[in-house]
Amino acid sequence: MDVNAVIQKPTVEEIAQALPQKFPCVQVTKTAVRRVSAKVPREHIFAVCKYIHDNLTFEHCSIVMGIDYVDHMSTVYVLTNYYTGVAIELTADIPADDLHIDSVTPIWEGANWHERETWELFGIVFDNHPKLERLLTPKTYEFFPFRKSYKLRGWE
């Protein structure tokens, strides 16, 4: 398979083969009907997403979200190909002492608000984001309420 070719309707098998072939650092962790899951090192997330968009024709970034594992955080991206209905779920781990990852908003404009919301609730910084500011909480708010370290007021 030519990993540099543009494939309009890639199958799950073609995707599972192309990603680690093009990016040896990518680990495909699971495949299912119309679904591919993979782990990507955070320093490669932009390049991998650009390849998925440009060569595998995934037109839509459905979800960008954060997960707090206490000792580190992760970002999860769900990317969709409208031609086939196949979704790719990418997970990138981020160390707790350096919560930075590249923004994918230059690839998919729709990721803009997802990344802003993830930053606002978890504190994960999306480098090169065009407007990383709060959406839901006051601009003076200094906390990230979805972090496990966030202390609730009231019932504790």
Structure description:
This protein is α/β, with parallel strands linked by helices and 156 residues long. The protein has one domain: Beta Polymerase, domain 2 (2-Layer Sandwich), CATH 3.30.460. 22% of the residues lie in helices and 28% in strands. The chain has three helices and seven strands. The strands form two sheets. The chain has a five-stranded mixed beta sheet, with helices on one face. Strands 6-7 form a two-stranded parallel ribbon. The radius of gyration is 16 Å and the shape is elongated. The chain starts with 11 loop residues before the first helix and ends in a 29-residue tail after the last strand. The relative contact order is 0.15. The model has no long low-confidence stretch (mean pLDDT 93).
Distance between the termini: 56 Å
**CA-based gyration radius:** 16 Å
Low-confidence regions: none
Helix-strand string: HEEHEEEEHE
Largest sheet: 5 strands, mixed
- The CATH class is Alpha Beta
At the fold tier of CATH, the topology name is Beta Polymerase, domain 2
The fourth-level CATH homologous superfamily is NADH:ubiquinone oxidoreductase Nqo5 subunit
Q: Tell me the domain tally.
A: 1
What's the arrangement of strands in the largest beta sheet?
A: 1-2-5-4-3
Count of DSSP-assigned helices:
3
Shape summary: elongated
CATH architecture: 2-Layer Sandwich
Structural class: alpha/beta
Question: How many individual β-strands?
Answer: 7
